[in-house]
Write a structure and sequence with these properties.
This protein is α/β, with parallel strands linked by helices. The protein is built from six helices and eleven strands. The relative contact order is 0.15.
Length: 281
């Protein structure tokens, strides 16, 4: 059970996902190539067990997959991928974000992506492997490997379930938000829209140059000491310039502090947190 202090951010992140799923729907840009079988009407919502696996660069990778109750066997459902931050894990995010309940209610397939243990970065207390390496998304130095992971995850889900290929969405927090920028650059033809919470593109190796204009939601705390709000602000302008339309890029600047009429966020280790709010909110 998570305390009531988590409620604001859980609601906020669910609202952003719902906003993307309902409004950002490209028309005719992605062909329907699905060969998956229809679901069986009445099948209850469930996490897929055991966890699905794929192979990336010789390593077995996994992800947490939730399939909502089958109400209409002919329906192709949207796919939402949530990408955790540094030291995060898929199972943990399922509890923190509350997205599973939203997936069940709004009838979309949900993936909680899982990164792998890597050397080269360490911040704060983390679960680590025997070599002391935490889990994180290798944006920059291992970009190709991570892109292969997401392509294979999406392909595997599409092969097994009826996915609306025009409505695939990605949302990430912190290091996962960094990964969102990379997905925009390299997989814009796959995603209908993307959202980054407290993610900055300081590990990207190239300018923002996706294959198409892609709707983008950015959320950033103003007192974040790990991700410079000015950097995110600058990248927002770069994305807007590329999209050539302000309504394709939505930016939420959230004042950090103890309580500002339920619009503030408490910092966890001086970083914008997606789940916690002060008890006074």
């Amino acid at each position: 059970m998570y305390p009531a202090t988590y409620s604001f951010w859980r609601c906020f992140i669910r609202l952003v996902v719902l906003f993307m799923v309902l409004l950002f729907i490209p028309v005719g840009s992605i062909p329907d190539c699905s060969s998956a079988q229809s679901c069986i009407e009445g099948t209850e919502g469930h996490y897929v067990e055991p966890w699905p696996t794929i192979e990336v660069n010789g390593e077995e990778r996994t992800y947490r997959l939730y399939i909502p109750t089958c109400r209409d066997p002919a329906r192709q459902r949207p796919l939402v991928i949530f990408i955790h931050g540094l030291c995060g894990q898929a199972e943990q995010q399922a509890g923190l974000t509350g997205l599973t309940a939203l997936a069940e209610r709004e009838d979309f397939i949900l993936v909680y992506a899982e990164s792998s243990y890597k050397s080269g970065i360490f911040i704060g207390p983390c679960t680590v492997d025997e070599a002391g390496n935490p889990k994180w998304w290798g944006v920059g130095p291992q970009t190709d490997e991570e892109l292969e992971y997401f392509r294979k995850v999406i392909d595997q889900v599409k092969d097994s379930y009826q996915v609306d290929e025009q409505r695939i969405y990605g949302i990430g927090h912190s290091n996962g938000g960094h990964m969102i920028y990379q997905l925009a650059n390299d997989m814009s033809e796959t995603f209908a829209a993307l959202a980054s919470f407290a993610g900055a593109p300081f590990l990207l190796q190239e300018e923002y140059s996706p294959q198409r204009q892609i709707p983008f939601v950015l959320v950033q705390g103003t007192a974040d000491e790990m991700v410079d709000p000015a950097l995110v602000e600058g990248y927002k302008e770069e994305i807007r310039a590329f999209n050539n339309a302000a309504d394709e890029t939505i930016y939420y600047s959230i004042d950090s502090g103890d309580s500002l009429d339920r619009k503030s966020t408490r910092l966890n280790s001086s970083h914008t947190d997606i789940s916690r709010m002060p008890s006074s909110a």
